[in-house]
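Limitations
The structure tokens in this dataset are predictions for the assembled complex, not deposited experimental models. Users should treat interface geometry with appropriate caution, especially where small molecules or nucleic acid strands are included. An illustrative entry is reproduced here so readers can see what is and is not provided.
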Amino acid sequence: MLSFVGKRLATGVGLIVTLAVLTFFFLQLGNSDTAQRIAGQQAGPEAVAVVEERLGLDRPAIVQFLDWAGSALTGDLGRSWFSGQEVTEAVTTRMSVTVTLAVGSVLLTAVIGITLGALAATRRGWLDRAVQILAVIGQAIPGFLLAMALVLVFAIELDWFPATGYTRFSESPSEWLLSIALPVIALTLGSIGGVAQQVRGAMIDAFERDYVRTLRSRGLPRRSVVYQHVLRNAAGPALTVLGLQFVILLGGAVIVEQLFSIPGLGPLALSSTSQGDIPVVMGIVVVTGVIVVVVNTLVDVIQAWVNPKVRVS
Amino acid sequence: MSTPTTTASSATGAPRRGVLRRLLVHPLGGVSMIVLAVIVVVGVIAPWIAPHDPTETSLSMIFAEPGGEYLLGGDSAGRDIWSRLLIATAFSLAGGLLVMAVASLVGVTAGLIAGYYGGFVDAVGAWFTALTMSLPSIIVLIAARAVIGPSMWWTMAIFGIFISPVYYRVVYNSVRAVRGELYVDAARTSGLGDGRIIGRHVLLAVRAPVILLMSGVIAAGIGMQAGFDFLGLGDPTIPTWGQMLNEGFYNITRSATLVLWPALALGLTTVALTLLGTALRDELEGTSERRRSRKAPAWSLDEDVPAVVDHGGEDASEPLLAVRDLAVAYQAGDGYATVVKGGRLTVRRGETHGLIGESGSGKTQTAFSVLGLLPKGGKVMAGSIVFDGQELTGLSDAQMNRLRGTRIAYVPQEPMSNLDPSFTVGHQLTEPLVKAAGLSRKEAKERALALLARVGIPDPERAFGSYPHQLSGGMAQRVLIAGAVASHPDLLIADEPTTALDVTVQAEVLDLLRDLQEELGMAILIVTHNFGVVADICDRVSVMQKGVMVETGATADVFDDPRHPYTRALFEAIPKGAPRAPLAGVTSAGLLGTGALK
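Predicted assembly:
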């Protein structure tokens, strides 16, 4: 089990390294006039040179990268070129907000999606059709469009929730809940259908398995076979989908945050890339990569726990 | 097992020409195709029908009311919303198509090469796929914009590359599957070049999945473009739905219609594309619900069932199981496939009864009917099944549950697929004892361990805690036999219990069944295609052909004097020199080749 986790993590570290290298050198392509912009459009060549030297931009790209990577290993992702803020701090504070949204949506998606999928698979009929239609619509309509509709109805028309803004949990838990409710619901609506569809498919598939008939031939009622055996065997595919959904939800959160003016990763990503603030962009990409790798490893571990074949071998 | 395959084959073998027509009459497909056709036409003729320049601003038209000079009113910069909507349609469709073109070109090419040759491209493909799945695409596009600036075409092309693994994986898997096919090997040995093989055989196999992905990828592209532009990252000189939504959303207090039109256009397009994809999948894969009519069609036995050749010699005692004129059918399209037409069977207490016939003769279906566990879609249409004086046809599932496991038990054919891979052997043995037979957990465990020892498992404690994949096939079959006899049933139905096992293990399993029968005094109905098995352990035998029982009698009588032509044909199909009535313990004689019987 330990070597299994170790192997997954090693692959993840490889991914993060390639991600960092690719992003860094790709960003160099658009990095020709950054020093000029930091110094100001009126600044003369001397002033620009001073900025270049201060930020170390006068060195070859490979040296800059190794320098960055060296301190990144110690947890220091440098400082923003424009605001001077520490990147590690800026990214982690904002990432915590984004991850809150994504985790909240994944949990909600898991509970509702699995329930709907299981009901659709066992009851069939109209419920099944309703779940399938929901899946198609959730898949088809972009998340921010749903978010917009929610804001229009529940924040502007009904005034149940704040339309924009974010309250920290430490300030007021109840207002925090209200401030993330609409964003989380918006993100969840888009992903429930897909998960429900997967669970439904996996369960219908499991129903037709030989061992289900054999268990039934021993006098076990249909219900108990469904809840213990069919659901357990459908859990693997469902988990995989939830893991993938997490990455999709992180991306969706970027747009939804902008829409709700939530100080998450999205607004930071937008401002830093439009400025060409390479340390911040690097920080965002790497930290996102780390989180995704951690989540994927977690999914693999739970997968192994559910599926003895992976665990034992 | 012989499940009818009529439904599956009719769908996959459907002629390709009909897909478009079937799609049009598909309830979702027809509507979404019409909607999409309108959107595409609007997009194509937009430059000619747009009444105004979509980027032309006019101070006097800021937030102009709809209906005047501007059909749908003006936006915050005094631009014509109707014209912008029209031109945006063209750009959205073009963007979606670009994503699809790039993704399919990159993904299909890489998938073909990696799948066919493997090696370096394979490794890079797997690695790139993992990379794209570890970062949200919007982050990548935002980062890319820092370098390339606000270009819609570049953004969409990069997104296309980023989601190309969707195609890559599908094509890769299809090619891998085709690569191993015999006809590809044959083409290679006959000297066809790789290019010709890929062109002729491999492309054919990936055509359907690639078409299936098309509409979904276009929808994803359009959605991503809208989201990207909604963030204000798009090219300001190109009007798009995303920009209009952004503009409308930040002026939502002035007029809700600013948001309404682009939202409607975007939602309609993506929903129509997705529904089209679903409809296409339904029709290509034959999973359409439409053809399954609401009301079940009328069933009738369309032929006379010939009388069974009966050797007689049964004692007059009350039979334990009496099957009479059984008919089993599966609904297929607008009619039925009747797989059992004249099921007749009499099993007496304590006897071993062989049910023999080639694959598809209906013997397994007859056995499942007795258990009340026919595969999905199968139904007992006529006849009676009387078990110990009780009529089983028409019983509810709950009523059958009281018989299953306790009085009628079942040993399946394929040991591995009949054990749940996620639960230990012990759990699968004790669960029915606790839930159905009402034992306590402790009693159930004791009984299970004793049974495991009884069926010849060397270390019962260890097997009890094992998962099915840790057992050999022979061990797994012993576990299944232990599970079947756990509650001392009166009738054990064994469906080809030795077919999937090694020859040496086959004999041991048959010996075990014979010993258990003597011990417990149960009757065994053994379904087989192997006369060796019949000769070895059966007191009586019934022969089935094409769903009809043709001959029945004591094993010795049928072997000495096979009267029905089909029974004689079965005997003639046994290889020359193989013993008809095999020596004790030898069970491999006379595996029937089905081809010889036709």
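Some entries come with short summary sentences. For this one: Residues 227 and 484 of chain B are 59 Å apart (CA to CA).
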